[in-house]
Amino acid sequence: MRITEILKSEKPTVSFEVFPPKTSDSFSAVEKAVDEIAAMNPSYMSVTYGAGGGTSQYTLDIAREISEKYGVPSLAHLTCVSSSRESVKSRIEDFKAAGIENVLALRGDIPADRMNEDRSGWDYHHAIELISDLKESGADFCIGGACYPEVHPESANRKEDIMHLKEKTDVGCEFLTTQMFFDNSLFYAFLYRIREAGISVPVIPGIMPITNANQVARAIKLSGSFMPQRFSSIVDRFGSSPDAMMQAGIAYATDQIIDLFANNINHIHIYSMNKPQVAEAIMRNISEIIK
Ligand code: FAD
């Protein structure tokens, strides 16, 4: 089922993200997590794409398994920036052959060791080029993209970031998933700004439950997200006690989700990070709300 069809639902929907294993040794552990998350019957599940594409076959295998084995629609991520056009085209052909319907088209992060390279000769520079390749592939993919309520870290300013986002939706990106954020007012302001800029596609807020203190620095470095005082107090107070931090992190994410639903944002994506216990706890906390 196309993600855009799911997003037409007036009932609240919840989707989860999983990531593929880095090596074949951990494939069965990931499969088990996928199995348990799929059993919660989310509206769809997304599968990330390893930076550089080294684990791309796993993304495809897991995305296919989610829809074929569990009957849950899947969304396969695909990145382009550190790949050749030839390899991306062949990956798109693999997606077509496997019957992948939904693709989250991403640029990918510039690898740290290639940051200072002259990129003019690279095959890809921005996600928009991948979206065009997907559109030209002859398959009727439902294509999504990423967006950044707190501005992409490489953007010169908010105006430019939104202008490029509009270009992405103009070439065929049909829905957007946000980078994580910990202050919902930033998301509401972003939504207002992009609607004003003429971007009308559905935007799904991505919520990251922070359930251990080590995750905090990594998540903030990756996303550049603002950490509200209320959340830093939780980390300061409970960060050294794993069970308490898990409970407080789930409660904080639940609070964000309930506030979003209360403000008529009907579709939520949860960065569940292959943690069924986190997904399950959040689903339990909102069970009456999403009925
Ligand atoms: P783009 O849309 O290309 O934007 C990147 C930057 O370039 C922005 O500053 C933008 O304003 C600017 N820009 C865009 N178009 C143009 C243009 N035409 N000219 C000039 N500037 C332009 N990474 C992975 O490796 N694997 C994943 O599975 C993955 N999943 C993600 C899922 C979500 C929901 C999000 C939010 C991010 C994900 N990422 C993933 C990280 C993502 O790859 C990085 O954030 C990356 O730096 C940007 O990707 P993008 O698709 O947003 O890029």
Provide a compact summary of the structure.
With 291 residues, the chain is an alpha/beta fold. It has one domain (3-285): TIM Barrel (Alpha-Beta Barrel), CATH 3.20.20.220.
Task: Report what the structure shows.
The chain is an alpha/beta fold and 291 residues long. The protein has one domain (3-285): TIM Barrel, CATH 3.20.20. 45% of the residues lie in helices and 13% in strands. It contains eleven helices and nine strands. α3 (56-70) links the parallel β2 (45-47) and β3. The longest helix is centred in the C-terminal third of the chain and has 21 residues, at 242-262. The mean pLDDT is 95. The structure holds flavin-adenine dinucleotide. Residues 48-49, 51, 77, 79, 106-109, 126-128, 145-146, 152, 154-155, 160-161, 164, 167-168, 177, 179, 206 line the site of flavin-adenine dinucleotide.
Largest sheet: 9 strands, parallel
Which distinct ligands sit in these coordinates? flavin-adenine dinucleotide
**What structural class do you assign from the helix and strand content?**
alpha/beta
Q: Provide the domain count.
A: 1
* Number of E-state strands: 9
Question: What would the principal axes of the Cα set say about the shape?
Answer: globular
Query: Quick one: CATH class?
Result: Alpha Beta
**Percentage of residues in helical conformation:** 40-55%
Distance between the termini: 21 Å
Portion in beta strands: 5-15%
CATH third-tier fold name:
TIM Barrel
- H/E topology pattern: HEHEHEHEHEHEHEEHHHEH
Spatial strand sequence of the major β-sheet: 7-6-5-4-3-2-1-9-8
The low-confidence runs, each spanning 5 or more residues with pLDDT under 50, are none
Multimerization status: single chain
Based on CA atoms alone, the radius of gyration comes out at: 18 Å
Mean pLDDT: 95
Helix count from the secondary structure assignment: 11
* CATH architectural type: Alpha-Beta Barrel
